[in-house]
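Justification of resources, computational component.

The compute hours requested in this renewal are based largely on the per-chain cost of generating structure records like the one below. Each record pairs the submitted sequence with a full structure-token output. That output is archived, and it is also reused by downstream analysis tasks.
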Amino acid sequence: MSERTYLVTGALGCIGAWVVERLLEKGDHPVVFDLGTEPRRIRDLLGPEALARVSFVQGDIANPAALGACMDEHGVNHIVHLAGLQVPFCRADPMAGATVNVLGTVNVFEQAAKRGIQRVAYASSAAVYERADEDRAGGAPCENASPTPNTHYGVYKLANEGTARVSFLEHGTSSVGLRPLTVYGVGRDQGMTSGPTKAIKAAVVGRPYTVGFGGRTDFLYAGDCADAFIAAADRGPEGAHVFNLAGESIAVTAFVEELCAQEPAARDLVRVEGGELPVPGAIDGARIGEVLPGLPNTSIREGIAETLRRFRELHAAGTLDTSDLDS
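The structure output for this chain reads:
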């Protein structure tokens, strides 16, 4: 079998860092394509020897020549496309958000088609739904619901699902788009739903922190999210498919209570304030298990414990970045 070389776009972000870690763990070669150059989140998960096995290419996801050259130089034969600007960035600069999220995704699919790559795994989002979609569905919406996004970010993600569908119709490129909601774990320090992870970090370093939203949300451990993307890239079905990627739906206050049970200092440090997120509090993720069986399902208790453990290690080593706690 030829070497499995994965293009991982946007891999300097949280989920991408975990994808890189998981790929190295199973002996594959990750090629990181990102406009940034600081692999802090990847480094937080890996030792220096493992980091040396990663190929880094700086480039603009919306630049066809740059992305194509990267794929050719490294002999890419698998793709996990995660590059994107999240809700706050898209709200602040919709043009830049559309360039990265929409044009960047078109570019990925075009370059894949030109090189005969059979399948693309890409990040959609539960932000394609709005809070009212849960009421209309009579519970957690499934993939058959007609989503009505209420943010630029959600609109862009829905457009990307259309791009994937057209790419299969015109070029035969299969794809799996995954819609996670609140991903948490080491490296999750940006975006609207990063507050619970920041709360864990704040508890480790002894700083006050307020999670800026309440209500209920679906918590998905970052390692599980990465495993799902890799499975989608490896063994996703033929055609253009989109799946909700669910973890466990609980109140944000319940998440913080579990954090306090494991780190008692958090009781005097972490607060929850603010209204519900503008997306459903739960999503129905049953379908992906039928198509990609065997995906991991880390409990919130286990996920918080593992995140605390790694943050404590980084803090003890003096390498835990806490700049996100100021934002």
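The first strand starts at residue 5 and ends at 9. Residues 5-185+218-248+279-298 form a domain with the Rossmann fold fold (CATH 3.40.50.720).
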